[in-house]
Design goal:
The complex is a heterodimer. By secondary structure, chain A is mainly alpha-helical. Chain A has one domain: Orthogonal Bundle (MetI-like fold), CATH 1.10.3720. Helix content of chain A is 76%, strand content 0%. Chain A has eleven helices and no strands. Chain A has helices spanning 2-11, 13-35, 67-103, 105-120, 123-134, 138-164, 168-175, 180-191, 193-216, 228-237, 243-271. In chain A, helix 2 (13-35) packs across helix 3, helix 6 (138-164) runs antiparallel to helix 9 (193-216) and helix 9 (193-216) runs antiparallel to helix 11. In chain B, strand 7, helix 7 (198-215) and strand 8 (218-223) form a beta-alpha-beta unit. In chain B, helix 6 packs parallel to helix 7 (198-215). Classes of the chains: A mainly alpha, B alpha/beta.
Chain lengths: 275, 275
């Protein structure tokens, strides 16, 4: 079964490209401190706002810092926010969705109304408000993105559960005297895993985008620590004289989110038996 | 062994109360096969679910009567005691072998799980006690292989298979093997052959019948096919609209039906005129 999926995945070139790019990005993030040609925090006011050159491949910013090195270090921020936020989203979303879908009744009503409420509040304003309250730092950003992302996933998982729980193997497991927790996580969860996987992959891209937006607005990673969003934010002030400062972080965000989306779409095609 | 006394079950649908089983009494003696026949919606499956207390609280309730199994009223047992009875002393075989095995688990894992849920304590487990030994099988692969050879499957091939790699008949044999793992006293077979081809149907019922005799277990065979069930049971009960309308030894009921509805059922068995 696994080998069948691998074969189908291999034939989906865009998904493979997305996957390889993400692997590359993860390696870059992991080894960023050793790969940086310059100290990402070292200021050099003599060389401020220099364009791309042999010494500074992607130019320098308003304080003369090397943009390439800062982007490289920013990869860590983007990926860790993406994965941690989605991890939080998964724990909450999957647990609530499974319980609501499996137990039904009052619990289901309660969870789904909570989802409705959450979905009716624009997430970005909620995030802004909470960050303004708690103070901007990267850990708050990860947690708050995760805490606002789960309702969609919960709804998805619950819907899948509703159809799976009526299958006879779930009944069979119940009458074999297998514990409810085991039925939920060993019998039900693996049968709804493919939409979860797809949603999580797309979710990482979304979380990276949200983090960039927050850093751009000054509520994410605080300077001098680099993140794609805050490099872009500085770039905006010098748009007319230093295009490289805006272009490269934009490209980094774009390509990364695109890679996650391609991978997610590809997984959907591979895992969905109807395609 | 099992005696159902004045059982009443009600279902709730959109605020309405629907009486699914009304004042039903039925006895199954040790080593006996009893057939429960009726059209769909007559409450046959509800009786099986009620015996195992698997009727969901939001959907319906047992409103009256007693279900006495080995001297204990099942309806009065605590949840944990009931869990011990369920899947160990009373097991069930489902209608559709295509949905009654979990598609993401191998046959071995599904069998092992049932064994794990019921640590064998009461009777000593055996290995190599012969395929018809009525006692529960030993833990580990040897026991599982033993259980699969009981139902005339090739253990080495089937044990590591996923359900989609098996035919419908093979899956139903696996279900029977699982139902017999714990050495149950009573097996509830809810339309065990309805989803199968006619020839496979016959094989499965022959097998079940043979196992029932040699292992000295009781079977409640639920079906809508009166002619088929009459061959393999000692006693037959005909159900209509939640009530038993007639109960007789199978042969008598088939050849000498007293109730008008039973007569109608038997007349409805297709007979093809010779010319």
């Amino acid at each position: 079964m696994i080998s069948l999926y691998l074969e189908r995945f291999r034939q989906n070139r865009l998904a493979v490209a997305g996957f390889l790019f993400i692997v590359l990005l993860a390696l870059l993030a992991l080894f960023a401190p050793w790969l940086c040609p310059h100290d990402p925090l070292a200021q050099n006011l003599v060389e401020r706002l220099h364009g791309p050159s042999a010494a500074h491949w992607l130019g320098t910013d308003d304080l003369g810092r090397d943009v390439f090195s800062r982007l490289l270090l920013g990869t860590r921020v983007s990926l860790s926010v993406g994965f941690v936020a989605v991890g939080i989203e998964l724990v909450i979303g999957v647990t609530l969705g499974l319980c609501a879908g499996f137990f039904g009744g009052k619990l289901d009503t309660l969870v789904m109304r909570l989802v409705d409420v959450m979905l009716s509040i624009p997430a970005i304003f909620l995030i802004l408000a909470v960050l303004a309250f708690l103070g901007p730092n990267i850990y708050n950003v990860m947690v708050i993105i995760g805490l606002t992302a789960w309702p969609g996933l919960t709804r998805l998982v619950r819907g899948e559960c509703l159809s799976i729980r009526e299958r006879e193997y779930i009944q069979a497991a119940r009458l074999s005297g297998i514990s409810t927790a085991r039925i939920l996580f060993v019998h039900l969860l693996p049968n709804v895993i493919s939409p979860i996987l797809v949603s999580a992959t797309l979710g990482v891209g979304g979380a990276i985008l949200t983090e960039s937006a927050l850093s751009f607005l000054g509520l994410g990673v605080q300077p001098p620590a680099p993140s794609w969003g805050n490099i872009l934010s500085i770039g905006r002030d010098y748009l007319h004289m230093a295009w490289w400062l805006s272009l490269f972080p934009t490209v980094a965000i774009l390509v990364t989110v695109l890679a996650f989306n391609l991978l997610g779409e590809g997984l959907r095609d591979v895992l969905d038996p109807r395609t | 062994m099992l005696s159902i006394e004045n059982l009443c079950v009600e279902y709730y649908r959109r605020g309405q109360v629907i009486s699914a089983v009304r004042d039903l009494s039925l006895t199954i003696n040790p080593g006996e096969t009893v057939g429960l026949v009726g059209e769909s919606g007559s409450g046959k499956s509800t009786v099986a679910l009620a015996i195992l207390r698997l009727i969901r609280a939001q959907e319906g309730r047992i409103t009256g009567g007693k279900i006495v199994f080995k001297g204990r009223n099942l309806l009065a047992l605590a949840q944990e005691e009931m869990r011990q009875v369920r899947g160990q002393e009373i097991t069930m075989i489902f209608q559709d072998p295509f949905t009654s095995l979990n598609p993401v688990m191998t046959v071995r894992d599904q069998m092992q799980e049932v064994l794990d849920a019921h640590p064998l304590s009461s009777s000593p487990a055996v290995v190599g006690g012969g395929p018809m030994d009525p006692r529960p099988v030993a833990a580990g692969d040897d026991g599982l292989k033993e259980a699969l050879s009981r139902v005339q499957l090739d253990p080495s091939r089937v044990l590591n298979s996923y359900p989609h790699q098996l035919s419908g008949g093979q899956r139903q044999r696996v279900m029977i093997a699982i139902a017999l793992l714990s050495g149950p006293a009573l097996v509830l077979a809810d339309e065990p052959t309805t989803a199968l081809d006619v020839l496979v149907q016959k094989d499965i019922l022959e097998l079940l019948f043979q196992l029932q005799k040699t292992m000295q277990i009781s079977v409640l065979l639920i079906s809508h096919n009166l002619a088929l069930v009459a061959q393999y049971t000692q006693r037959l009960a005909v159900m209509r609209q939640g009530k038993i309308v007639e109960e007789q030894p199978s042969r008598d009921l088939f050849y000498n039906p007293k109730d008008a509805y039973t007569q109608e059922l038997i007349r409805a068995i297709p007979a093809i005129p010779q010319n």
